[in-house]
User: What shape does this take?
Amino acid sequence: MKTIFAALLLLTGTCRAWGPEGHEIVGRIAEKNLTPAALHHLNELLNGTNAVTVCISDTHIANWPDEIRHDRPETAPWHYVDIAFDAEKFDRDHDCLAHTGCVVSAIEQFTQVLADKQTNTAARLEALKFLVHFVGDIHMPLHCAQRHDDHGGNMVWVRWPGEPKAAKLHGIWDVNFVQTNLHESGLAPLPYADQLSGKITPEQSATWSTGTPADWAWESHRIAVTKVYAGIPAYGSAFVIPAEYIKANQPVVAEQLTKAGLRLARLLNEALR
Ligand code: ADE
Ligand code: ZN
Ligand code: ZN
Assistant: This one.
């Protein structure tokens, strides 16, 4: 009994990422913004042919790193970077340890692997699946921040309005916000992604498709500090997330998903010319 309980704790105690829907949405927005050359190379990599449509929004691609995480524990640190709440910048030596890696270095390294046509197909395919997932993760503000060593809100228990059980602040941002946006739109994840992609203005496309993984992590950290943690007590599971907090942050989640999709597309377009 004790072991079952410990196993359950282990299973629920770790972070995931945006929930499965979030990663599908990011993959889909990227698909919509790929160049013909990138589409061609992705088709070869995914299907070994040029005939089938590219589907990096498929859950077995976009969420694959979460599926293998427990069998490959060395991959766990690649999903996040714990930048301290009061940090003044992203400090690679401090925040992204060379022997474990973090979401920033993982994106950088898998971009190299994917771009290298000398590398074998299996390794490039894995690199692609890691990239699709990690570019999503780095845009989840709590994957780039921690307050009082709370592992990106994984140790902060709160309540979602109407839910009887306490939930982690982290999980609320991974899952509840995305599901709230989906519910409000009345759409399934892929049509919702199409809607987000269709609303991108040329100005947004130009400003959002910029930056390096280190810049994206720092941008996420700033959002965590100014928006995600704002007004949320560090301890105590009785705190009910206010309706105004939810209203104010739904667009933040939509924008992060959109930026992630656009930036993933740019990265793939540059790696697969
Ligand atoms: N595990 C430890 N820190 C984390 C974070 N910031 N996000 C997700 N999982 C984590
Ligand atoms: Zn993840
Ligand atoms: Zn997460």
Summary: The chain has 13 helices and two strands. Residues 1-15 have pLDDT under 50 and may be disordered.
